[in-house]
């Protein structure tokens, strides 16, 4: 029986981070993962991460995955793929199946980082081909390079449903609607807004009741639900679709912890049954740790920090780092993690519907929560969302919720934008500082919620710079329609310039000319020929 000082189960963000942290401190580490490639969900994530610089904010998920793999390799971590951990037994013995055989291993300590599984829901016709989890659709698109369908109905308005829906648009699919039984959008408002302005409608307090088709999905029936989430007769609506994506949450995969005899608890705020862990991720069995989604559903940025905390604690237990160094690491990682767990989307706020104002006292947009976009009247209540009185381009920031994110203030070399020390604070714009129109804030915003606006650039026209992540990119001189926040056609528009650079990491900024007075409302460009295809890496 082979022995390692640390065995990590799962080569996702939490597992790789734990393994690298431990290996750098001198521990002998092996990582087992049942998949054919390491990285977990990161290589499916082509969007830019939130958080701060220390959390790799404004970096796309697959690039973070590449960095983690490189760091693990440089630290000497051994990664074994296509290797399924079958069970954890006494004395920290593990059975692993790979290469057509089952082998036994023993460890001084174990880190369980097995991630989560997608929740599903049943309805009439849910077994038809074309009904799939949102994560499966994301795998098809971003790993296999296959469009999951042409016309998509997305069920679920959490961050997974919203992010995958936008990526479906980037892949050239048509998202027919977002449907959710909850009365308000569950994910970040900036994710909902960038969908709405492309024309995707939201049906809150609705659910899917049937998928229709002979040998595959051809349409779906949705219906309104009452306060007990029961479909209301007579409210049915049929929507043409060949694919129904389900994004109704994730469940922690804590089976190995349970099998090992770790104390388990049912915690809805964490997604289901999870092992009881200490502040450093150690379970009720000394030497067995749990990190990432297996310990409770959170974002990948949080999972990476949790993995590092577990590894630091294990290294301290086995003498690889002393108590003082461990305290320093634990304090730094804990502070970094607390930043991600702050704001109105903090874990302790999961499921709350009574939050009505931002920390700064601004009322939350009812239209955003119920329809996926902020109305013009509501947006004008936020100072950073107004272009100001000066001439020339000015940043307009339509970030109206306290989410952990601050790349915008780092991107502005002129100091026009500030979030402050609390990364969940709403951005502010300093009207006394001159915007150079470099567009870096627009490209850096992970939520695509920043625009450059000049209400009057002459000749009866206004100018707006907006983020654009679709191919083919329009050429200067391209004509089309400017859409408003709800996705409705607002006016004619002309692309006068397309700005892009390596520093923008494939977020182009379209400089779009519209009639004077329209720049404060125009938020998307639709080419006259309607061509929008896949966003390339």
Can you walk me through this structure?
The chain is α/β, with parallel strands linked by helices and 537 residues long. It contains twelve helices and 28 strands. Strands 1, 2, 3, 4, 5, 6 and 19 form a seven-stranded mixed sheet that branches. The chain has a seven-stranded antiparallel sheet with strand order 20-23-24-27-26-25-28. Strands 8-15-9-10-11 form a five-stranded parallel sheet. Strand 1 (2-9), helix 1 and strand 2 (29-32) form a beta-alpha-beta unit. It is globular and about 80 Å long.
Task: Outline the fold blueprint.
Elements: E1 2-9, H1 13-24, E2 29-32, H2 61-75, E3 78-80, E4 84-89, E5 93-98, E6 101-112, E7 116-118, E8 131-133, H3 134-142, E9 151-155, H4 159-170, E10 174-180, H5 189-196, E11 202-204, E12 206-212, E13 219-224, E14 237-240, E15 243-246, E16 250-252, H6 255-259, E17 264-267, E18 272-275, E19 288-290, H7 300-317, H8 323-340, H9 366-371, H10 376-379, E20 394-397, H11 407-411, E21 417-418, E22 428-429, H12 440-444, E23 450-458, E24 461-468, E25 479-483, E26 489-499, E27 508-515, E28 524-527
Parallel strand pairs: 1-2, 1-6, 2-3, 6-19, 8-15, 9-10, 9-15, 10-11
Antiparallel strand pairs: 4-5, 5-6, 7-16, 12-13, 13-14, 17-18, 20-23, 21-22, 23-24, 24-27, 25-26, 25-28, 26-27
Helix pairs in contact: 1-2, 1-7, 3-4, 4-5, 7-8
């Amino acid at each position: 029986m082979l022995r390692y000082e640390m065995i990590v189960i799962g080569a996702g963000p939490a597992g790789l981070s734990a393994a690298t942290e431990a290996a750098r401190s001198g521990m002998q580490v092996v990582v087992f993962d049942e998949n054919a490639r390491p990285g977990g969900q990161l290589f499916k994530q082509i969007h830019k991460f939130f958080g701060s610089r220390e959390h790799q904010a404004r970096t796309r998920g697959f690039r973070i995955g590449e960095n983690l793999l490189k760091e693990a390799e440089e630290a000497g971590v051994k990664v074994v793929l296509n290797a399924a951990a079958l069970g954890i037994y006494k004395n920290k013995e593990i059975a692993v199946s790979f290469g057509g055989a089952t082998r036994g291993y023993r460890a001084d300590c174990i880190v369980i980082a097995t991630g989560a599984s997608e929740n599903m829901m049943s309805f009439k016709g849910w077994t038809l081909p074309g009904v799939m989890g949102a994560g499966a659709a994301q795998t098809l698109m971003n790993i296999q390079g296959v469009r999951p369908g042409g016309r998509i109905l997305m069920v679920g308005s959490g961050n997974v449903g919203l992010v995958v829906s936008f990526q479906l648009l980037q892949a050239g699919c048509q998202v027919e609607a977002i449907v959710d039984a909850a009365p308000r959008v569950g994910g970040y408002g900036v994710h909902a807004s960038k969908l709405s302005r492309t024309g995707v409608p939201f049906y809150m307090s609705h659910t899917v009741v049937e998928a229709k088709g002979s040998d595959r999905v051809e349409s779906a029936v949705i219906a309104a639900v009452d306060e007990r989430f029961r479909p209301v007769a007579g409210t049915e609506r049929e929507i043409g679709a060949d694919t129904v994506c389900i994004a109704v949450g994730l469940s922690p995969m804590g089976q190995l912890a349970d099998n090992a005899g770790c104390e388990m608890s049912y915690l809805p705020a964490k997604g289901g049954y999870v092992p009881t862990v200490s502040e450093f991720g150690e379970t009720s069995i000394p030497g067995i740790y749990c990190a990432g989604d297996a310990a409770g559903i959170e974002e990948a940025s949080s999972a990476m920090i949790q993995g590092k905390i577990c590894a630091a604690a294990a290294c301290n237990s086995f003498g690889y780092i002393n108590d003082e160094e461990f305290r320093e690491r634990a304090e730094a990682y804990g502070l970094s993690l607390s930043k991600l767990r702050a704001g109105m989307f903090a874990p302790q706020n999961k499921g709350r519907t009574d939050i009505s104002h931002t920390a700064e006292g601004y009322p939350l947009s009812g239209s955003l929560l119920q329809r996926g976009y902020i109305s013009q009247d509501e947006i004008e209540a936020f100072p950073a969302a107004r272009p100001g009185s000066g001439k020339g381009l000015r940043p307009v920031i339509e970030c109206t919720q306290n989410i952990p994110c601050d790349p915008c203030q780092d991107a502005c070399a002129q100091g026009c934008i500030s979030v402050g020390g609390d990364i969940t604070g709403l951005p502010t714009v300093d009207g006394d500082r001159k915007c150079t129109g470099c567009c870096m804030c627009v490209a850096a915003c992970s939520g695509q919620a920043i625009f450059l606006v000049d209400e009057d650039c002459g000749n009866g026209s206004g100018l707006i710079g907006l983020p654009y992540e679709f191919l083919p990119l329009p050429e200067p001189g391209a004509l089309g329609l400017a859409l408003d926040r709800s996705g409705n056609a607002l006016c004619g528009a002309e692309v006068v310039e397309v700005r892009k650079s390596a520093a923008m990491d494939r977020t182009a900024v379209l400089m779009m000319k519209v009639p004077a007075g329209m720049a404060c409302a125009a938020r998307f460009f639709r080419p006259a020929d309607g061509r929008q295809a896949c966003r390339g890496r």
